[in-house]
Amino acid sequence: MSLATLLKGRVALVTGSTTGIGYGIIKTLSAAGATTIMHGLLPEAELRAKADALAEETGNSVTYQTANLMDAAEIRRMVGQVQDRHGKLDILVNNAGIQFVSSVQDFPEDKWDAIVQVVMNAPFHASKAALPAMLEQGWGRIVNTGSMHATVASPFKSAYNAAKHGVAGFTKTLALEVATSGITVNAVCPGYVMTELIEKQLANQAATRGIPVEKVISDVLLVDQPIKRFVRAEEIGAMVRHLCTDDAGAITGACLAVDGGWTAR
């Protein structure tokens, strides 16, 4: 079977997939033949244009959803609409994330709550909504985007570190609960990828640490990433693609590092 038909017939929803890691994932799944649903909070016309452009590039159906992941009801509605439109949802990739960098004593409580909601709580709500149909059909793939911060910590990112550690625990627990059902649940844990999320952190990190942006990249972001380059979003997509195949049916409850050797130390 060629890569272009590896996921033919599968329906995949990827949250936070208009840019960065999420876009790398949805592009890879679409190129492998899956019917994909792009999710983001862009203006609808812009989101539609992105979905249409990807569909034209890969030759496969790409639609879109705009659910606010801060709202559990909207998450349930999104999953239900995908299932109603396509008759099923085989693959759920909980990728969306937000970030804020600050010391604990100065960390705004609303920022903490928002990060925990989007990074940790939203995967719970989406997975819970998707599970009944997956259980009924006896097949499903749930992939959560973790981070090396799901296993190790960095200073000034307390909410993100806590939420990503929560994602790792949730992934393992759900994997055990559905282990005999034909559903696998895994987390892919990237190292630093140069995404818009990271780009937006650079000035914040520089100000917080009192160093130039160039030093943030070399001395903070990549200092512990042995390959000394950013991980590519397409490399994360390739790992997710494999986890969504039947060949990966025995991989479940895993937090798989794609971090350039970060956590090998």
Automatic annotation (TrEMBL):
Pathway listed: Lipid metabolism; fatty acid biosynthesis
One Gene Ontology MF term: 3-oxoacyl-[acyl-carrier-protein] reductase (NADPH) activity
Assigned EC number: 1.1.1.100
Highest taxon, organism lineage: Eukaryota
Enzyme class of the recorded protein, top EC level: oxidoreductase
GO biological process: monocarboxylic acid metabolic process
Stored InterPro entries: 3-OHbutyrate_DH (IPR011294), NAD(P)-bd_dom_sf (IPR036291), Sc_DH/Rdtase_CS (IPR020904), SDR (IPR050259), SDR_fam (IPR002347)
Catalysis: reaction(s): a (3R)-hydroxyacyl-[ACP] + NADP(+) = a 3-oxoacyl-[ACP] + NADPH + H(+)
UniProt-listed SUPFAM superfamilies: NAD(P)-binding Rossmann-fold domains
Coiled-coil stretches: none
UniProt similarity note: Belongs to the short-chain dehydrogenases/reductases (SDR) family.
UniProt name for this protein: 3-oxoacyl-[acyl-carrier-protein] reductase
Organism field: Auxenochlorella protothecoides
